[in-house]
Amino acid sequence: MKNFMVAPSILSTDFAHLGKTLEIINRSEADWLHVDVMDGMFVPNISFGTPVLEAIEQHSMKPIELHLMIVEPERYLEVFSKYGIDQITVHAEACLHLHSVVQQIKSLGCKAGVALNPHTSLGSLEYVIKDLDTVCLMAVNPGFGGQGFIPETLEKIKELKQFIQRKDAKAFIEVDGGVNRNNVKEILNSGADAVVAGSSIFNSDDPLRAIQELKKPIEINVTKRNKLNNN
């Protein structure tokens, strides 16, 4: 059984203690840091901009995935790429010329990801899938943390896996929204490679342990069951 790649989303952290959050993530088994930028137009929420990104770059030891939930993301790609960003993920719904935006991301030396909202079909990836490093399936309607996982996402993961294989593409499947230790195995078994998690990590008493449980759900559950059997 493979392990998940896990990307903690700082959207759910206490921003008064952002430095402490980054220290925790740096010490954790997380694979990269997921940073959501929202403009209040594409989604009904506003997060932050370049000053916070600059601070994150200075203190994060993990690769950074920038998830742009903004209209016309191509206007800001060059600016954002200067802050040590490893991957930029844009929404298919926000790009009039998606192929052009993906190529622009690549030209800036970043990996390219495309996110799909729950209602968006996989057909929007038809002509870009081979250029992508990641497809991010939203398992909630984007804009706010703490939402419940949309169950139909599991079938969409399976369909995307088949689509990627049929196209002989190499993109990872990332699932974002409502991920927790109770559904992570189902997400894994459906074919996902990575998950983004915020509330389930930062609302827990032990964020380091929460990340570990997401990365190794099978091992963690076996360990717990053995402890029960021994008592």
UniProtKB/TrEMBL annotation:
Pathway(s): Carbohydrate degradation
Entry-linked InterPro entries: Aldolase_TIM (IPR013785), Ribul_P_3_epim (IPR026019), Ribul_P_3_epim-like (IPR000056), RibuloseP-bd_barrel (IPR011060)
Signal peptide extent: none
CDD domains: RPE
Cofactor detail note: Binds 1 divalent metal cation per subunit.
Enzyme class of the recorded protein, top EC level: isomerase
Cofactors (names): Co(2+); Zn(2+); Fe(2+); a divalent metal cation
Sorted UniProt keywords: Carbohydrate metabolism, Isomerase, Metal-binding
Binding of a divalent metal cation, residues: 34, 36, 67, 176
GO MF terms, alphabetically ordered: D-ribulose-phosphate 3-epimerase activity
Binding site for substrate: 9, 67, 143-146, 176-178, 198-199
Location of the active site: 36, 176
Enzyme Commission number: 5.1.3.1
Catalytic reaction annotation: D-ribulose 5-phosphate = D-xylulose 5-phosphate
Protein function: Catalyzes the reversible epimerization of D-ribulose 5-phosphate to D-xylulose 5-phosphate.
Family under the similarity heading: Belongs to the ribulose-phosphate 3-epimerase family.
NCBIfam families: PRK05581.1-4, rpe
UniProt-listed HAMAP family: RPE
Name this polypeptide is given: Ribulose-phosphate 3-epimerase
Origin organism lineage: Bacteria, Pseudomonadati, Bacteroidota, Flavobacteriia, Flavobacteriales
